[in-house]
Amino acid sequence: MSALLIRNAKILTMDGTRPRAEALAVAHGRIAAVGDEDHARAAAGPGAREIDAGGRTVLPGFIDPHNHLLSTAESLAAVDAGYPAVTSVADLVEAIAAEARHTPAGQWIRAFGMDDAKYPEGRPTRRRLDEATTEHPVIIYHVSGHQAAVNTAALQHAGISDDIADPAGGALLRDEGGRLTGMVVDSAMELLLPLAVDIGCHGPNFHTDLPADQLLGWLAAARDPYLSAGLTTICDPQVSKRELRTYRAARAAGTLPLRTVGMPLSHQLDELTAIGLAGPFGDDWLRLGAMKFYSDGTLLGGTAKFTVPYGERGQFAGSMYWEPEQLRDLVTRAAREGWQVAIHTQGDAAMAHTLAAIDAAVKVSGPDPRPRIEHCGFPTVEQAKRFTDYGVIPVNQPNFLHDSGGDFLRRLGDRAHRLQPMREELDLGLRPVLSSDSFVSSLRPLDTIANAVRRTTREGASIGAEQAITLHEALRAHTLDAAHALGMEDRIGSLAPGKLADVVVLDRDIESVPVERLNEGAAWVTVLDGEVAYDGRAVEV
Ligand SMILES: [Zn+2]
C-alpha cells in the first residue's frame, strides 16, 4: 500500500475546521494530512505516488445512501428501456427484437427503465411485444420497478392464462374482452419470475431468483460505472438474503465494487431479533445499517398516498402497506432492538402515519436515533417542522424531478413544486441527503447534484425553484451528510487526518462550471481505501 500525494488541487474537505486546501496526503489507507503542499508532501513521505490535480476539484468520495447496487448491476447487464434510449412502443419493440437476435431461444430477455408515460402510443401490449419475439419470454420493468410489461411467451412460461385471478396486492391488466394485456402490476409480478425470497406484504419484491454466479459477475462488472462516477460508498436500501449473500460472496472474492451498507427489509425483523442481531453490524466494507420499512406506494406508479388524490382526474388514491398502528408497532419493535429506522414515504397522508411511527420509535431508541424518511416526497410545512423534533433525515432523489417532473406537474399540479423541499429542510436545520435510488435513476452523483441545484424538468420547466439548494449544500448532502445518515461520519464523508482515504478528483473545477453544465462532470481519479481504484487519466486525449 503505497503513499499518495494529491497536489495543485482545489480541495473541498467538508471539514469545518479547514474547508479548503491545496494538497492532501494518503498513507496506510487513511488521510495523513490536508493542507499546503509542503505539509502534505512531508506527511506522504519519500516515494509517494503523486497526482498533479491541475486545479481540479477534489472531494471526499461520494456516498449514495439509497442505491440498489445489486439491482443496478442487474439492470446494467439488461436491455436499456429507459428514456430517452426508448421513447415509444415502436422503439421498445425494436430494442427487444435486437436483443432477441443474439439471445438463445427460450432464454429470458429482461429490460429495465420503461417510462410509458412518455410514449405517444401509451402502454405497450403483449401483442406488440410479440412482434419483437415469440421465441423468448420477455419482461420489461417499469421505471418505478413496481410494474412490468411482458409478452405472450412470458405468460405461457409462467403458466398464466386469461382465467387467472388477480393475486392480493396486485393485478394483471385486461382489455374489454377480459384478455390479459401483458401489463402486470405490483404483487402480480411475482407470478412471472421466480423470487429468491418471500417478503410478505413488507414491500415490492424485486428480489428475482437468478443464478449466484450470474449475480456475482454482474456485480463485479458494476465496478467501473460506480467508481468512474466518483462513488466510494453506497447503501442498498432493501436487502434480503439474496443481496447479503451476493455481497458477502463478492467481498470474499475481492469483487465488491465499493463500500456497501445494507438495510434489511422489515420482513426479517423477527429472525434477526431471534439471534440478537441489529445494526450497525459489520465493518467498513460491508455492514448492516438501518432497517427499511414501507409506508405508502410510489409516486411514479400512482400509488403514493396523498390527502387529496392526484392524477389528471384525481384517479390516484394511493395505497398503504400497513394500517397506521401496524406500522407504528413494527417500527417501534425494530427501534427497541436498536435499529435505526428508514421508512419509504411519499404522500402527505402517508407522512402522517410515518411521523406517528417515528414519534413512538424515538421514545424507545438510543439518544441519537436519526430516523430516515426515504424519498420524503411531500411533507407539508407542518410535517417538515415536526422533523426537527426527531432529527429526521429526509433522503431525497432530485433526479426524479428531472426525469419525471413533467408528469408530476401534470398529475400533482401546484403540489409538484413542493416535492422534496430541500431548501426548507436545510433552513429548518435538518441534514437532508442526496441519493439516486439507482436503478430507478442515474447513479452518477453529479446528475443528482445538478438536479438538486437546478430543479428543472427534462423538458426545461421549473419545478419548485424556491426549493433549490446551492452547489456546496448539494456536495455536502452527497458526502458528509450522507455519511451522517449512515452513522459513519466519524470515518468517511470528509477529508480530515485519520479518516478512511476515500477521495475523488473530479475531471474539472466544479465551482467554475455553469449551472446548466454541472451534470457533465465525472471522476478523473477515484481513490478507495487509499488505493487508486479508478484512473480516468489514461483515457484522456
Ligand atoms: Zn429505492
TrEMBL record:
The keyword Transmembrane belongs to this UniProt entry's keyword annotation: no
Record keywords: Hydrolase
Domain Amidohydrolase: 49-534
Hydrolase found in the keyword field: yes
GO MF annotations in UniProt: hydrolase activity
Residues spanning the signal sequence: none
The enzyme's E.C. designation: 3.5.-.-
UniProt-listed InterPro entries: Amidohydro_3, Metal-dep_hydrolase_composite, Metal_Hydrolase, YtcJ-like
Alphabetical list of CDD domains matching this protein: YtcJ_like (cd01300)
Protein's UniProt name: Amidohydrolase
Organism: Nocardiopsis mangrovi
Organism ancestry: Bacteria, Bacillati, Actinomycetota, Actinomycetes, Streptosporangiales
